[in-house]
Amino acid sequence: MFLSVCLLYCKTTIAQDSIMGASANELNNYWITPPVKNLQQYGVYHFRKTFLLKDKPSSFNIHVSGDQRYRLFVNGEPVATGPSRSDEAHWRYHTIDIANYLQPGKNSLAAVVWNDGEQSAWSQFSVQSGFFIQGASANEALVNTNASWKVLENMAYNPVASIAHITGAFEQVFAQRYPWGWQQKEYDDNTWQQAVLSNGSNIAADKRRIMMPAIIPQPEEKRQRLNAISRSNGLENVTDDFIKGTGSLKIYPWADVTILLDQRELTNAYVSLLTSGGKGAKITVTYSEGLYDSSGNKGNRNEITNKTIKGNEDIFLLDGGDKRLFTTLFYRTYRYVELHIENHQQDLVLEDFYGTFTGYPFEENASFKSNDGSLQKIWETGWRTARLCAFETYMDCPYYEQLQYVGDTRIQALISLYVSGDDRLMRNAIQQLQHSILPEGLTQSRYPSNKLQVIPPFSLFWIAMIHDYWMHKKDDAFVQQFLPDIKKIIEWHKAYINEKNMLNKTPHWNFVDWPKEWPWTGIENESGVPAGTISGNSSILTLQLVMALQKGAELMVGFKEVATANNYKSLADTLKNAVYKNCWSSRKGLLADTPDKTIFSQHAQALAVLTSTLPAADEKAVLENTISNSSLIQCTYYYRFYLLQALKKAGLGNLYLSQLTPWKNMLDIGLTTFAESPEPTRSDCHAWSASPCYDLLATVAGIMPASPGFSTVVIKPHLGTLTYSESSMPHPNGMIQVSYKKNETGEWRTAIELPQGITGKFIWQGKTLLLKGGENKFVL
Hints:
There is one protein chain. The protein is globular and about 80 Å long. The chain is built from 15 helices and 34 strands. Helix 4 (406-420) runs parallel beside helix 6 (456-472). 23% of the residues lie in helices and 27% in strands. A hairpin with a 2-residue loop joins strand 32 (759-764) and strand 33 (767-771).
């Protein structure tokens, strides 16, 4: 938590760095640490340096990093936060130009560095607490971290465990112990200690970090007001002036007050509370995605009657000072926030309470419009979901794990490419998952993560993710580096192919989805897994391998590794033929999950179509049966992505819009992001459920790459019952814009605009028309 009156007036947009930086071997400066014995334990530390400049520089570039987390201020202004999460072998630093924050005369750099110790987030690696700055040139080296820096251990903090114990510590802060104003250049730091250079035993630890420039920008930050007071207890005539920033709220001595606030939409934000007076008062701030009834269910998220809040908490213990601004060290995820105020000795004034939104700085460059207003709401909610699940990595969910799982990330990355066009976080994710590869050849299921977990199917989806990037971006050098790792993953799986030419039981957790028939049991390798996982011969697991082989073969052909490609194609054919022979039920007209043909799922049918395991003539009938047959094990939100891709492949794409009922149901119960799984759900915001943002453009508007690098385009809309749709999306060479309008006579007036130099095909009701760069118009 960084706490200062000044931040109320400071800019809320973090300075954006250039992404470019020095190479790792050019970073030769020391890290500095506080003079404490155990640098791995919980601690919050402040570092400061003052220096003189004759003139205001036109540029002043520094390389900056910290461990575990840091927040940097220049003359009181926040300019950087980080480091971008990675691991010890790829420790990230940002290069920041701080010239705009400097002035002639005295200047100050100040940083808060914190380490959550035993309560560290699973997504956060750490060597030991420390801070690093190196000027990018000799002139800028006057701010290098060295013995001229001062440090203070902030004893105001105690850690508060998160409810899931995996997202890092929350905070209890004693205002009386806090060094108020520490980040201002006028602050008197004469009593602070000298920072310790990383030498001796410390330098051995710090050398474990191999420094590399960040390939993603600084997170976005933007001031955000809460929207409403939903209820209050213990105080009459509560107004919302203090959350609007237009007034204050007085709490009298010996009051016990509870105020429930509603953001109205889920958000990720640093939370700031400005108080005056109230010496000895305790304010507990609780954050929740939704409220809970007496049975522990959330129900309609807009309803608060007979519901209570439960969730992560910060605690502020006041010292009675004037204009005390408490701001959390890290962002919080919430829709509802409850303030429980236990006042004692004197009047307490709540001067202000607000959030500062943060997230990866994606821009919404795409658009989707239609005559169906519900689709616009799905678009907006899906994009909000995707944004809240992206920070320094993609995340499965912001409230709980905050981990970059491959299964979630593949879908998130496609959304990023289509809605924003920004591929940097996708590139970062692909590389980080490569960094996670174990000696046996598999990626870890999620990374960065200091807790090992392996899901073999997720390694297969990493192959699909690389294929996605290859198809959408012209960047062969980036893609080619991953081919050896693709081969390792395939070889690992090949070792488990049995005499039936299906996958035998494989080690680790073979998670597929969360239907009610595959519930969480408390044991990973028994949860979320289909029939045949333990005994072997799962059609689902085998066909996931087939899909990876097919995409791997396309990649190998693209990079002239023809022999490997042919091997993959042959093996894929062998496996899918075996699955069809062993698991096809002519009686049911469906593919069974195992050769005993007693269990059937939507998952198996979707994969059978996507891999062309079924005869092409049977695909439509099988999928029509699949989506209408409630006796099948149903795909939840995550795996419906693959089910709906199968509809599209089978020529049933016009049914896509009719399959959005689960998403509309989430909106009907007040969700403002899309949830992890059907009700009752744990997480109200889960990245894999945002897939409609991709499909409204790729399936409904029909925009897809026809060749690697998006060098050619195929546009094949699936409008269903729509009579009007207009969309745009970023392409590496510009924007693609499509418009479909049906007139009173039943004619469709279509306009398609491609970037110059890009050609393609427009497929409409069996007709194929050629597209050129620029504007194309058709009346059909």
